[in-house]
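User: I'm putting together notes for a lab meeting next week and I want to include a structural view of one of the chains we've been expressing. I don't have a solved structure, so I'd like a prediction I can at least talk through. The sequence is below, exactly as it appears in our construct file.
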Amino acid sequence: MRASTVLTLLAVASALCSNATPSVRSTAPASAATAPASAGVTASAPAATTAPVIATPPPATAGPAVVAASPTLAGCPLFPADNIWNAPVDTLNVHVNSAAYVQTIGPDVNVHADFGSGEWDGGPIGIPFVVVPGSQAKTAVDLYWDDESDPGPYPIPADPPIEGGPDATGDRHILMLDSDDCVLYELYRAFPVDGGGWSADGG
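Assistant: Thanks for the context. Below is the predicted structure for the 203-residue chain, given as structure tokens.
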């Protein structure tokens, strides 16, 4: 997929984007009707009801600290400097529901951050990318999900790095960063086609 900003990098702060909890309000009828008294019968008042309990959000806290300037990659900004994705995680306030999130996930479960370096089962770990100039020749791609993809063409250089390596059978992402126009291009399950060109499930 093509994005006007660059590289949606993995982050672990998505649950911390908001510190507010919506208020929960329990309502009760404004008044209770009493049955009219009849001759020889004493009407009793209805039982007292408990006033509704209203949960209020926590007090507002200061916004997260942000980096002084937006990080860049090949001269292209990675979101504005004040964007939540550029906030140092260790400076963010702990979310009011943090304990509940941890308990739901499991306090003894490891975080599976699907990025890194090195190899696993003989293939490289992570999703590589390649920086290309704005003059890079663009290639038409035969897209399986063409109705859910940007039609292209895509600036695929010769021998681009592929997620998992050239012989991978998994997701096979290809990411190309146009450093002149600051546009990120992505293909999913991309394969070179005999005789030239590429095919992919989506882009």
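A couple of points you could mention at the meeting. The longest helix spans residues 98-105. DSSP finds one helix and twelve strands in the chain.

User: Perfect, that's what I needed.
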